[in-house]
Automatic annotation (TrEMBL):
It comes from the Archaea. Residues 3-234 form the NAD-dependent epimerase/dehydratase domain. InterPro entries: Epimerase_deHydtase, Lipid_A_modif_metabolic_enz, NAD(P)-bd_dom_sf. Gene3D superfamilies: NAD(P)-binding Rossmann-like Domain, UDP-galactose 4-epimerase, domain 1. SUPFAM superfamilies: NAD(P)-binding Rossmann-fold domains. This is NAD-dependent epimerase/dehydratase.
Amino acid sequence: MKVVVTGGAGFIGSNLAEELSKKHQVIVLDDLSTGREINLKGLDVEFIKGSITDLSLVNRVFSGVDYVFHEAALPSVQRSVENPVATNEVNIGGTLNVLMAARDQGVKKIMFASSSSVYGDTPTLPKRESMTPAPMSPYAVTKLTGEHYFNVFSSLYGLKMTCLRYFNVFGPRQDPKSQYAAVIPNFITKILNHESPIIHGDGEQTRDFTFIRDVVHANILAMESSSEGIFNIACDRRVSLNVLADQIMEIIGERRELIYDAPRSGDVRDSLADYTLAKEHLNYEPGFTLLQGLEETIQWFRNQ
Ligand SMILES: NC(=O)c1ccc[n+]([C@@H]2O[C@H](COP(=O)([O-])OP(=O)(O)OC[C@H]3O[C@@H](n4cnc5c(N)ncnc54)[C@H](O)[C@@H]3O)[C@@H](O)[C@H]2O)c1
């Protein structure tokens, strides 16, 4: 099969491209705005540098392609709070281009990287796909809009699709350096550098952290499945940031005082998924506990 991973030089996209390249011909389309070419080092993939906001380029890249994994986006709730227009242009405008090209080039199925952020701060846990979304940030709005576009392209044009709502993904290659870095690579690199992790808020906010290899597996299951729809992809356990920091310090074997800073606007308080639908339709089950994922991730960061 010939497959395209948009955003394939990023954290999730490069892990996905690596796994796909073991069996398929893989093309990565990425403008390197948040991704890094080094993520593709040693991988058997074709790299095309360019933006999903360029429709004619996306059409050329998708020509003759069987499956598309649409991972390209400007991620981060915080970035979108600071610059909603940029997030909108890439995550909505770019996603529309990706759908147009997938439709016009006869792509067999397209998988979309959606996000748990679409649920917002509704009190009911765990989050189920039947719940009414309540986005709290421009980023979450763009992901929900992307899902709506996927549904519309499915019903209007018969484009086969699956939207995967990822819950806080972590693992090797996740960027610790960006000012919008996710919490796990941030904490790990701080502690490895003998510095204190900074927590926004009281640290009692909880997340359902999902190991990258489970997310990659879910995408491949979605490609191979005849099922379509919107599915939560998660680990199905939630931990607070305080407990998370404790576990990371335990594995690394170094204790640091935690520094508490002001909470960030747009962040949800608690997040936990019910992945029953993904289990029923895609045969998805998380294969890694938080601890197993953290051990592998910390080992990877130690080797860098
Ligand atoms: N990491 C998570 O916890 C998480 C959770 C939910 C959803 N997601 C979604 O998963 C996808 C991958 O996220 P990630 O964590 O790997 O982030 P990332 O920043 O590492 O990857 C995003 C990639 O998209 C590329 N990109 C950005 N704008 C582009 C454009 N205009 N044209 C082409 N490429 C472009 C970036 O250069 C980068 O390589 C994103 O769509 C993100 O919204 C991530």
